[in-house]
Amino acid sequence: MRKYHHGDLRSALIEAGLKLLADRSADELGLREAARSVGVSATAVYRHFPDKGAFLAALAAEGLRQLGAAQRDAAERVGGGSAGFAATGAAYVRFAIANPALFRLAFSASGVQDASCLAPGGGEAPSNDAALLLRDHSRNLSTDQAASRQIALRAWALVHGLALLILDGQVVLDDAEIDSVVSGFAPVKN
Question: What CATH number has the domain spanning 60-183?
């Protein structure tokens, strides 16, 4: 156990939690274990997270931040547009495969996924980059709010469903097949 010596214990605990999620589920993750991994007492954790639910919510928020960053990078690599929209979908699936426990946490009841932008009427601005990218890409394909919402829901359902099918061992796809399935969803601009 290394001793904690820098000034941002909250960030250190989140980093430790992310490392622990690499080989276990969120249900198996404990606050005491996170505290031990950064070399502090279990009571020190409670200064930043009042309970396990708050800790899991912070991990989920970081997972969504990482997912959004991966999606944004993927879209930029291909130059945006329709290819960028497909790239964000493929990045979503690849993120889930690379981070199964974090992905499941981010989209669980403990998670903080914000789909308000998909609500009738457009909802509020999304609180995370992943949802913001989905909203913006779908709005670029249609100026009609109802049509834009349908595009976003279909795209999210496709990539989320595909990710879960892969994570649950229902299908096995290589990178080329993931790209093919995701790019096969090609909404046209109206």
Answer: 1.10.357.10
